[in-house]
Amino acid sequence: MCEFSFENVYGKLGSGFAEAHHVVPLGQLRDKVKTRVEDLITVCGNCHRMLHRMPGKRDDATKLNRAIRKA
Ligand SMILES: [Zn+2]
Ligand SMILES: [Zn+2]
Fold first, then answer.
1. In this structure, which of 6, 7, 64, 66 has its CB flanked by the most CB atoms within 10 Å?
2. Closest C-alpha to 62, from 51, 71, 52, 53
């Protein structure tokens, strides 16, 4: 997303670190659904928080990406 590298900043400690975000918010899903890999995107903590400030739609990630490119 923003190309932040935890490893570059935190060294070994941050190596391989990222947060997983559900493209469709769990609160919007009915009953038990299995999480599929396609439903997750990996983002840094900052982008993750920003995603959760957005409406919770499938294209949030695309929009956030665009917002980052513009900023
Ligand atoms: Zn999330
Ligand atoms: Zn980020």
1. 64
2. 51
Cα–Cα distance, 65 to 48 (Å, whole number): 12
Give residue 13 CA to ligand 2 midpoint distance, Å.
Answer: 17
**Interval between CA 2 and ligand 1 midpoint (Å):** 15
* pLDDT tens digits for range 44-71: 999 999 999 999 888 999 999 999 999 9
Q: Which helix (H) or strand (E) holds 48?
A: helix 45-51
Compute, in angstroms, the gap from residue 46 CA to the centroid of ligand 2.
Answer: 5
